[in-house]
C-alpha cells in the first residue's frame, strides 16, 4: 500500500475547484496514454461540488468527453430519476452538460429496473458489467480505473461501506447489495474495497469540521472494518483532498496545523 498524500485547501470551494483542475489533467493524460480514461464517481456534496466545478473549469474542453468511461462507487437503490440517486445528482451537476458517449456512462441499476427490488441481483449485474469492460492488462475483474472518487462520511464510511457492516468485510465480490445501511436509504449498491483498490488513483474528499474526527481516525492506522476510509487506496496513488476544517484534527506529523 502506498502512503496517502494529503492536500489541504483553504475551504471547500477551493478544494472543489482544485480537484476539478486536477481531474482534467488526469483524464487528459490518460486519454493521451491509453486512448480513453475511466473515472468512478461518488455521491455526496463534495463529489457533486467537484463535478459542478468541473462544469465551469476553464480547461474542461481539453477533455475528449466521448472517450471517457464513467462508473459509480455506490448508489442509493431507488427508482430511476429519484433526486436522491447519485446518478441523478451527477447528471444535474455535470453529465447533462457535456458531450459524453451514453454507452460509456454506467450508472448502477435502479430499484424499478430489470432486477426489481433485488439489490443483490442488481449488484451482481453491475459486477458483470464491470467484468465485461475489463481488458486483459487490467489483470482483475474490474477495470483499472484511472481515478476513483470517494466522499468520506463523518463515520469514516466510503461508497456504501459502513463501519463494521458486512459489505466492508467482502473480499471476493466486487459489487454488493447493502442492506440496513445506517444512513438512509437503507438499501444500496456498493463497490467493495477490493474493487476500490483496483484503481490507479483513489481520491478521498472531505470538507468541514464534522469530518475532522473521521479523517484523523482513518489516517492514524485504524483498521478498515472499523474505518472503511482507511482501506481505500489506489495502486499508484492515494490522495486525500481536504479543507482546513477537515484537516484540523490530524496528528501533527501528518499535517502541521497552520500550514495551509
Ligand atoms: O450515499 C450517500 O449517502 C453519500 O453519497 C455518502 O456516501 C457521501 O459520499 C459521504 O457521506 C460524504 O458526503 P459529503 O461529501 O456530502 O460530505
UniProtKB/TrEMBL annotation:
Keywords: Hydrolase. The keyword Transmembrane does not apply. Transmembrane segments: none annotated. It comes from the Bacteria. It is an enzyme of class 3 (hydrolase). Residues 11-240 form the Glucosamine/galactosamine-6-phosphate isomerase domain. One of its GO terms (biological process) is pentose-phosphate shunt. Pathway: Carbohydrate degradation; pentose phosphate pathway; D-ribulose 5-phosphate from D-glucose 6-phosphate (oxidative stage): step 2/3. Pfam families: Glucosamine_iso. One of its GO terms (molecular function) is 6-phosphogluconolactonase activity. Gene3D superfamilies: 3.40.50.1360. It catalyses: 6-phospho-D-glucono-1,5-lactone + H2O = 6-phospho-D-gluconate + H(+). Its EC number is 3.1.1.31. The keyword Chloroplast does not apply. Belongs to the glucosamine/galactosamine-6-phosphate isomerase family. 6-phosphogluconolactonase subfamily. Hydrolysis of 6-phosphogluconolactone to 6-phosphogluconate. This is 6-phosphogluconolactonase. The lineage of its organism: Bacteria, Bacillati, Actinomycetota, Actinomycetes, Kitasatosporales.
Amino acid at each position: 500500500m502506498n502512503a496517502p498524500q494529503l492536500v489541504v485547501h483553504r475551504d471547500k470551494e477551493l478544494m472543489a475547484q482544485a480537484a476539478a483542475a486536477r481531474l482534467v489533467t488526469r483524464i487528459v493524460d490518460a486519454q493521451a496514454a491509453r486512448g480513453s480514461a475511466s473515472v468512478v464517481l461518488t455521491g455526496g456534496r463534495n463529489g457533486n461540488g467537484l463535478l459542478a466545478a468541473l462544469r465551469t473549469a476553464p480547461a474542461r474542453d481539453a477533455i475528449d468527453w466521448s472517450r471517457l468511461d464513467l462508473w459509480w462507487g455506490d448508489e442509493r437503490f431507488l427508482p430511476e430519476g429519484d433526486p436522491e440517486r447519485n446518478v441523478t445528482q451527477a447528471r444535474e451537476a455535470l453529465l447533462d452538460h457535456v458531450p459524453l458517449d451514453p454507452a460509456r456512462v454506467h450508472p448502477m441499476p435502479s430499484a424499478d429496473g430489470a432486477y426489481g427490488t433485488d439489490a443483490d441481483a442488481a449488484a451482481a449485474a453491475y459486477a458483470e458489467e464491470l467484468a465485461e469492460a475489463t481488458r486483459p492488462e487490467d489483470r482483475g475483474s474490474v477495470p483499472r480505473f484511472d481515478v476513483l472518487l470517494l466522499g468520506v462520511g463523518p463515520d469514516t464510511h466510503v461508497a456504501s461501506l459502513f463501519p463494521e457492516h458486512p459489505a466492508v468485510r467482502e473480499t471476493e465480490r466486487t459489487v454488493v447489495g447493502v442492506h440496513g445501511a445506517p444512513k438512509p436509504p437503507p438499501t444500496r449498491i456498493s463497490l467493495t474495497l477490493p474493487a476500490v483498490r483496483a484503481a490507479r488513483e483513489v481520491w478521498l474528499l472531505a470538507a468541514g469540521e464534522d469530518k475532522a474526527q473521521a479523517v484523523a481516525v482513518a489516517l492514524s492506522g485504524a483498521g478498515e472494518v472499523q474505518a472503511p476510509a482507511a482501506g481505500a487506496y489506489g495502486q499508484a496513488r492515494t490522495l486525500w483532498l481536504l479543507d482546513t476544517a477537515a484537516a484540523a484534527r490530524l496528528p501533527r506529523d501528518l499535517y502541521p496545523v497552520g500550514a495551509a
